[in-house]
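Researcher: Let's run the pair from yesterday's discussion. Sequence first, then tokens, for each.
Model: Starting with the first of the pair.
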Amino acid sequence: WVFWRDEDTAKSEVQYVARPVYAAPFVQELIQKVAPVRLYMSAFPGVPSVFCRSLGLDAKKVAWANTRSDFDVEHRRVHYFPVGSMGSREKSVTTPRLLASVTKISARHPERGLIHCGSYELGAKIVDALAQAGFGGRVVYPKTADDREAAFQQHAETAGSIIVSPSMTEGFDFSGELARWQIIAKVPYAFLGDKQIARKLELDPEWYAMRAAMTLLQACGRICRSQEDYGVTYLLDSDFDGLWRKAECMLPGWFKDAVVFHRPPGS
């Protein structure tokens, strides 16, 4: 377990938090006794060793079935244009280049689109940059998680809308004309300010890389939702190089087939 104290000085509130590091100790009691046979389904559940370890499953008793995607790879391309690292140490240098690329891509696509910004701080900068470039009328920006449903509805009703959010990597269906393009501004590594996440990284670095890969694949899957659907993804954070090295063996072949690597100018 991890325990910590959060203080909201603006509201004069203090919160004490306790969370288990892993779900594994509770699976036997909460799930396994009532459902001895279980089927887990996901576009990408991760690699067997990490998946089983996280849930306390005996890998020898787990059957693992993989299938290839039946979506045309040309309908779901992921173009990797690295503009620099968006990690905490380098983002101040990289952000101006990122914003320039975001506005350029937005100008190229008059259709509805989606920008995964990774944080509300970066989202606000992207919104400002798009407004300065003359695209302010296209932008929909839910400033909290509670605003997402209303923002999604506004996006669906607005031609050429660009929705900017750090929390739409899963659970939202941008099928058909709801999005023909999207930008992933930052590789979605989990926030290490979360004590639970930080402790899990200490204990299991492989899990941390796999979680980032899972979130990235979920984000890439927002806009191509069927065999007839299509959309293009732009990945701009050069930290993808490190994730590719750490997690290439984890990434499914159908995703790797879709990635197109573009080298930055002068490299």
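Model: Moving on to the second of the pair.
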Amino acid sequence: VREYTRKITASGQHLLSLINDVLDVSKIESGKVVLTLGEFTLKNLVSSVDAIIRPMAKAKEQSFDVSVTGIKHEYLVGDETRINQILINLLSNAVKYTPERGNIYIDVSPGEMYTKIQIRDTGKGIASGHYNDIFKRFYRESSVSEEEGLGLGLYIARNIITLQRGYIMVHSAPGQGSCFSVFLPRQG
């Protein structure tokens, strides 16, 4: 009974995640995404992301390393919920496409103009010809079609980053992992 309950709960969470992604795409495409700017601490942001991603990585026996450097100001101004969503989308992809016992890293370094968040993994990697395609809605590389998801996470992340006047870059190679760099402007 416990095992069935666990599976039902996990399936329900996955379904809820898919529904939320579809709703976010609808809001993005209708121009109705509203950012809620507020002050938050980098420590709380990183801690909440860590609490979600670390168990996922542990389940696949992956190492998950977090590094925060160059903090000059404890508080940042932005939409903490949406930034959290961006990081969870990027990191859950890193976990999904990195094999067991692989490595995942997140490096956060707040600067004067931008906060740089870099997510690296030792996963499957992406061919350079697909860099723009991966940010399209419902896009999925044919080689990874057996993985869960609708192909909306990167589309949503890129649009939310753009709404916050930031940008995202990717560097990757098949079999060598990926590195996503997010630059979010310092607000306020």
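Researcher: Give me one sentence on the second I can quote.
Model: The longest strand covers residues 103-110.
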